[in-house]
């Protein structure tokens, strides 16, 4: 099972496409009472599990990450962090403290450093109409050589895309295939199904900073219960909550290119 702990919503960056911008002003964070309750239940589980630290920017909560590190069994716990990659010194401090490699998901942020944190790094490039021209051949080739198959593309479809944007991403895919082989494909901003299957359902437990169990870690209002009152509750979504709300302005097509009401660029980590 994977436990995603949203330690708080503070972030040191203000990326224009971030769906959490409104939450960044929320300075509340997960209390030690909630963390201790999580640890008490977690340490009673059998088998191996993953704890993913999420935010905001989780590296702003390094002391609480260390607190958790001190109280779990390393031999049956994998750690990962979804980070903007700007606080590299803090990441390496935590990794040294843990004594083992820490998984991590990076993305294209304004600081512009797209290099790996370690060999477990994955990279998600969030493409918007405003930044698509930054996908130069040299940048695409660098990402392909640096991350190999651990590279993915997601799209901000909150405004109407033009045919030229779609064709640009087809060009990006051709460059990637030139480096990684013809069998490498990226998710394209076309033919999205507005009721995308939730592929983490039943395997993930999302815990918000206030102890709420969430049906989706990207929706703080999707409360299923609270850790102070109930045992672990996994999400059980049939469809992705973020993809199932159609927006009429996104229902359009350019011949073979069909858009089906996708509202946000992301899918689950």
Structure in a nutshell:
The chain has 269 residues and is an alpha/beta fold.
Architecture overview:
The chain has 269 residues and is an alpha/beta fold. It has a domain at 2-121 and 199-246: Alpha-Beta Barrel (TIM Barrel), CATH 3.20.20. Helix content is 22%, strand content 18%. The chain has five helices and eleven strands; from the N terminus they run βαβαβαββαβαβββββ. The chain has helices at 32-42, 62-69, 88-98, 137-147, 163-180, and strands at 2-6, 49-54, 77-82, 103-107, 121-127, 151-155, 204-207, 212-214, 223-226, 253-254, 257-258. Strands 6-5-4-3-2-1-7-8-9 form a nine-stranded mixed sheet, covered by helices on one side. Strands 10-11 form a two-stranded antiparallel sheet. α2 (62-69) packs parallel to α3. The chain is globular and about 55 Å long. It starts with a strand and ends in an 11-residue tail after the last strand. Residues 243-248 and 261-269 have low confidence and may be disordered.
What key attributes describe this structure?
5 helices, TIM Barrel, 269 residues, single chain
**Count of runs of 4 or more consecutive helical residues:** 5
The main β sheet shows up as: 9 strands, mixed
**Overall radius of gyration:** 19 Å
First-last Cα distance: 14 Å
Spatial order of the strands forming the largest sheet: 6-5-4-3-2-1-7-8-9
Pfam family, one: Radical_SAM
Protein name: Radical SAM domain protein
Keywords: Iron, Iron-sulfur, Metal-binding, S-adenosyl-L-methionine
InterPro entries: Aldolase_TIM, Radical_SAM_PqqE_MftC-like, rSAM, rSAM_sf
